[in-house]
Fold this protein.
Amino acid sequence: MSNVAIVLAAGSGKRMNSDVKKQYMLLEGRPIITYSLDVMEKSDIITDVILVTSAEDIDYCDREIRDRYGYDKIRSIVPGGRERYHSVMAGLDEIKRLKEVAGISGDTADTAVRDDKADHVFIHDGARPFITEDMLKRLYEEVCLSEACVAAVRSKDTVKIANSADYVVSTPNRELTWIIQTPQVFEYTLAKEAYDILREEECGLPCQGIVVTDDAMVVETWTRHKVKLVEGSYENIKVTTPEDLLFAEAIVKSKFNK
């Protein structure tokens, strides 16, 4: 049985107004992405990591991330694509390739990425540094039951649904609104099926007005499988803007510098 994490690190980070991509910016002296990779490396849940980055950053990740910080669980570093979902596809394709290689070699000593019926995939944004082992355990326990779940927190604010002219259309019940995070976790074959269908139908997305924003949406749309919400953390922020970096620095100081 294996739980493979696809860590996405192919984003450009334009909103950070920096020449350094957000996932590689230093947070208290080390790249942002290393915080979540540390948790995965030490985790009893995660067995393998596929790191997806831009093609020009593969050597950097191999040298300055995997080798420098000693991440033995990073099995592959592969190039991502134009959109986030292209990078997820690349990660899923790499899992398939590793499974096929393991099957051909007959290497029963290494059970990682081998058993189709037992595998789960944890898809995580590299710019979310504050996942925890407890969070991974909650997600793993749920995915074993429901085959599809995502980390999320209840919305603290009232949410408005607007039209294209920015007028309010409706106000959903705040008790039923959640803010979605990562990791998003799926039984491997379910995620692969959903993304394979997306790949086939991708050219028709603009005509249908579909904008793919997360993995749960892919599974919901192309397999009709229900996705369970699992308690994440309000500290599990995605570092996207300079203000987020300030918040992340405060979290690090409170969590790690006591």
Summary: The chain has one domain: 3-256. The domain at 3-256 is CATH 3.90.550.10 (Spore Coat Polysaccharide Biosynthesis Protein SpsA; Chain A). The radius of gyration is 18 Å.
